[in-house]
Specification:
about 130 residues; alpha+beta
Length: about 130
Amino acid sequence: MPDLLYYDDLLYEDLGDAIEIKLHMIGGWIYIDTPIERKTVNSTELRYDGVPRGILTYVINEHPNEDVSTSDLKKAKLSTSRDLRQVAIKAGIKGYVKDLFMPVCNKDSIKIVKTVKLKASEAEALIDSLY
């Protein structure tokens, strides 16, 4: 999916120091959404029948801001033998995106936060870290 530019003439520094940044998953695409633009996190669409897409849809869209364990995934029929860290990294959640939106990510547990508030310089750094 292409990136979107909402406001061509607006700068992050114009928005103050509490800019709301959201993480979304739509279909097989993971997005960072700011008041100025929407940027794609992953470089290719996650396969509809793939393990990462199922797990991340469950965590991001159905259980945001919650610790989700491998036993929770098993109950939801999304069990995997993969390390949950690798699932997130393979899907493109890494670097600064991982640092901001994934406070818990280990072999057996994952937590993804849907919304963070950043300073203008942090928001710009996040957007610049994406493709």
